[in-house]
Amino acid sequence: NSEEKAKKAMVDAGRLADELRSEQDHATAQEKAARATEVSLVEMQKKAEEASIAMARGAAQIPAKLESRAHDIESALNNTIHQTDEVHKNITKGERRVKELLF
Questions:
Q1: To the nearest whole percent, how much of the chain has pLDDT over 70?
Q2: Largest CA distance in the chain
Q3: What's the Cα-to-Cα distance from 36 to each of 10, 49, 86, rounded to whole Å?
Q4: Which residue among 26, 68, 77, 102 is least crowded, i.e. fewest CB within 10 A of its CB?
Q5: Alpha carbon 4 to chain centroid distance?
Q6: First and final CA of the chain: distance in angstroms?
Q7: Which value, in Å, is the radius of gyration of the alpha carbons in the chain?
Q8: pTM of this prediction?
Q9: What is the DSSP string of 22-87?
Q10: CA separation for the pair 94, 102 (Å, rounded)
Q11: Rounded CA gap, 66 and 54, in Å?
Q12: What confidence tier does 103 reach under pLDDT thresholds 50, 70, 90?
C-alpha cells in the first residue's frame, strides 16, 4: 500500500516536473516574442521619425521651389512684354515709313 502511494507520488512528481518544464519553455518563448516585438516597435518608431523628418524637410523646400517657379514665370512674362513692345515699335516704325512713302 505504501509502495503504491510512493509510486503514485513519483508518477505525480514526474508529471508535475514535465508540466513545470513545459510552462518554463512557454514562458521563455513568450519573453522572446515580447523582446522581438519591442525591438520591432523601436525600429518602426525610428522609421516613422525618419519619415517625419524627411517629410518636414520636403515641406520646408516647397515655398522656395514655388518662389523660384514664380520668379521664372515673372521673368518669362517680362521677356514677353519686352518682345511685344519691340514688335509694336517695329509696327509703328513700319506704319510711319509707309505713310512717308505714300505722301
A1: 100
A2: 149
A3: 39, 20, 74
A4: 102
A5: 70
A6: 149
A7: 44
A8: 0.50
A9: HHHHHHHHHHHHHHHHHHHHHHHHHHHHHHHHHHHHHHHHHHHHHHHHHHHHHHHHHHHHHHHHHH
A10: 12
A11: 19
A12: confident
Q: Which three cell numbers stand for residue 13?
A: 512528481
Identity of residue 54: A
The residue type found at 65 is: K
d(CA 53, CA 55): 5
Tell me the C-alpha to C-alpha distance, in Å, between residue 22 and each of 17, 33, 44, 58, 98: 9, 16, 33, 53, 110
**Which cell numbers in the block locate residue 73?**
514665370
Q: What is the pLDDT of residue 58?
A: 87
What value does the mean pLDDT take over residues 28-46? 97
Residue type, 90: N
C-alpha cell at 38: 519591442
Whether residue 16 is predicted with pLDDT greater than 90 in this model: the reply is yes
In the block, cell 512557454 appears at 26
